[in-house]
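FAQ

Q: What does a record look like?
A: Structure on top, sequence underneath. For example:
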């Protein structure tokens, strides 16, 4: 995995290793809404399958002013309810806004704006963001809910120096195993499916649901390449040591989607993640600064990461 993401040639994105994605939009993480018990319900029109308003509309508490971004497609919204349930919306647009062209996903070319939110599809998980992260139905590549494993503001703000974020991280990866399951499985727990877009069959491919772990024996505080680096980067490394990262989504390719899902900062007021430009909010090439982990004891960098899809007891739930 580190070999795949190691700097290669002059490509600018190769100077980044497994950084948080900027979102939202194609291949990126969801906007997240946190309604309270007093947040009023709104109606979301469902435009799947095939035609506008084809599905049953859903009623859910979405806070006024929730920003889902302006990407070309695949804007996602996770509504984390106070009771632990979660609503996930795919290709969602706010009221009085032109919808996406849904034809690539089996929906209509467009639907007329109206006073309701509109989405291609909606899925409710109960439990959701407090659950194990393994579900049988979800509009995602692995059936893992959108909110599972994403880096949120609360991780950065509430974690003391020397700590970790307390949950596995959600990873986009471009070398997932073929859906045929031959010769390697296409998915493992907590994933319950694979999107089927991957054709990789080599021993380096990874099933949906694979758990990656940074070598726990590394001392993050004294590792030479992390000396003087920001505390958030060290916390990310500690999190990968304790909880690991879960492959939950497909990326188009190295430098075009590989990364860790992060909640969309557009709903965080003036606060920005520490890897963003604090004025513009920009993230260089969609990624954070590199961890830049060198080979350990002369071994290949790849040896610092292991994946846990090989036969063994099921890994622990994917906490948040």
């Amino acid at each position: 995995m580190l070999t795949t993401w190691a700097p290669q040639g002059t490509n600018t994105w190769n100077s980044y290793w497994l950084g948080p994605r900027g979102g939202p939009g194609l291949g990126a993480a969801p906007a997240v809404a946190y309604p309270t018990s007093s947040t009023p319900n709104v109606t979301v029109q469902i435009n799947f399958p095939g035609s506008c308003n084809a599905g049953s509309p859903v009623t859910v508490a979405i806070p006024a002013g929730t920003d889902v971004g302006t990407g070309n497609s695949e804007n996602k919204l996770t509504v984390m309810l106070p009771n632990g349930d979660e609503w996930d919306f795919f290709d969602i647009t706010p009221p009085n806004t032109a919808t996406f062209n849904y034809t690539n996903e089996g929906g209509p070319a467009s639907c007329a704006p109206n006073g309701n939110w509109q989405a291609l599809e909606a899925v409710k998980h109960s439990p959701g963001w407090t659950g194990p992260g393994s579900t049988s139905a979800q509009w995602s590549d692995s059936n893992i809910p959108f909110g599972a494993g994403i880096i949120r503001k609360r991780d950065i703000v509430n974690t003391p120096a020397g700590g970790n974020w307390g949950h596995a991280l959600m990873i986009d990866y471009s070398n997932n195993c073929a859906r045929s399951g031959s010769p390697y499985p296409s998915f493992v727990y907590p994933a319950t499916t694979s999107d089927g877009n991957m054709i990789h069959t080599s021993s380096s491919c990874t099933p949906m649901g694979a758990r990656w772990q940074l070598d726990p024996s590394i001392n993050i505080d004294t590792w030479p390449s992390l000396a003087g680096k920001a505390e958030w980067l060290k916390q990310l490394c500690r999190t990968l040591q304790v909880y690991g990262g879960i492959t939950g989504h497909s990326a188009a390719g190295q430098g075009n989607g590989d990364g860790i899902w992060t909640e969309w900062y557009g709903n965080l007021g003036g606060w920005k993640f520490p890897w963003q430009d604090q004025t513009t909010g920009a993230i260089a090439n969609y990624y954070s600064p590199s961890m830049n982990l060198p080979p350990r004891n002369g071994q290949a960098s790849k040896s610092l990461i292991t994946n846990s899809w090989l036969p063994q007891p099921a890994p622990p739930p994917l906490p948040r």
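Q: Is there anything notable about this one?
A: The first helix runs from residue 2 to 5.
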